[in-house]
């Protein structure tokens, strides 16, 4: 079985940054950013849990996680805000770790 430790750790960080970003962007009215951050946080949390327990679905959820993280990073890159910069960086790191 593949070692998913880097993915698990990156997912945890990504969940945190996505939740922070969604909260701040909600106040700023960045609707698409909020939507993607919430989706990304949820997918990363699920990916983290499945990989931690060695689920037979790790590979599939990791692929989805990469896709959502890349989309979230691209959306966050559109905004010149500290929360978006941190979120985009966490998403890129997570996508790389889960790929």
For the record, give the distance between the C-alpha atoms at the N and C termini, rounded to a whole number.
15 Å
Mean pLDDT, rounded to whole units? 96
What is the CATH topology? Substrate Binding Domain Of Dnak, Chain:A, Domain 2
Query: Got a strand count?
Result: 0
Q: How many separate domains make up the residues?
A: 1
The quaternary organization reads as single chain
The major β-sheet equals: none
CATH class identity: Mainly Alpha
CATH architecture: Up-down Bundle
Helix share of residues? over 70%
Shape type:
elongated
How big is the Rg?
A: 13 Å
> How many helical elements?
4
Structural class: mainly alpha
Order of helices and strands: HHHH
Low-confidence stretches: none
Strand content: under 5%
Task: Describe the SSE topology.
Layout: H1 5-28, H2 31-52, H3 58-76, H4 82-98
